[in-house]
Amino acid sequence: MAANLGAFVVMTTIEQNSGKIGIDDYDGLYQTNPKLAFLMTLCLFSLAGIPPFAGFFSKFFVFMAAFKAGFHLLVFIALVNTVISLYYYLLIVKAMYIKPNDNPIATFQSDGYTRVALFLSILGVIVLGIGGVFYNYLDLFSYGIN
Asked: Taking the model in full, what pTM does it have?
């Protein structure tokens, strides 16, 4: 949820300040708005399930629960879909960092509400990701507590 919120805040901010909405419009975004490009990259990596972000641990725990419940084929299909989605997320990252643009999105400043929304989103992506590391340890300490 935090990664989706962060990605949509970045896209909405760019649309409101430049009127551009296509993926080709994001070409060279890092040159004019490096912070937004970096935040968008973090959100996309979390959505793709790359560790140590929250998206990785959410997918990991869901896939493990499904695997333990005997849904092996479903987990395999989900893993294949995860790899496919990674390709599409990386297309956006490629557009922001690698593809040049003759007419890039102009540099702009976000308002305070947008900055707070982005901060909370990225905080959620990172903190929930780090929290996922300690989840199993919490489970070990709570064993036997009813």
From this structure: 0.86
